[in-house]
Design brief:
Layout lengths: L9 H8 L3 H17 L3 H7 L8 H15 L7 H17 L4 H18 L1
Helix pairs in contact: 2-4, 2-6, 3-5
Length: 117
């Protein structure tokens, strides 16, 4: 997540804005995969939904989502982005989805990005 913590930085936005939508979303897949692999969901859940975006992995996730939402080329994908973030929060805090469902959900963006290359 190098550099993502400072969304206001033009350099970060320029870097992300140069990526395709699927490439941007694949950054979230990387973080979700790390959370699942290292069984971090229980700790995140214990902190509560109000803590989303305040520190650690949820801070990084929120900042990435902010940049993706602010990218003008993603205007047609805003509904998808908002729904994906809500689904991720439901997984993290309410356990509404399994680890496998999350990996599959986010893995599709990485796969789509790989298909673009």
């Amino acid at each position: 997540m190098k550099g993502v913590g400072n969304v206001e930085s033009g350099r970060v936005q320029d870097s992300f804005f140069g990526m395709s939508f699927n490439h941007q979303m694949s950054w979230i897949d990387e973080t979700v995969s790390h959370i699942v692999t290292h069984n971090l969901q229980p700790k995140i859940r214990a902190e509560g939904r109000k803590a989303y975006g305040q520190k650690g992995y949820t801070h990084a996730l929120k900042r990435i989502f902010e940049v993706i939402k602010s990218d003008p080329k993603n205007i047609t994908n805003l509904d998808e982005i908002v729904k994906a973030e809500r689904k991720l929060k439901d997984y993290l805090y309410d356990g509404k989805f399994s680890d496998d469902e999350m990996l599959s959900c986010w893995g599709k963006y990485t796969q789509n990005y790989m298909n673009e290359l």
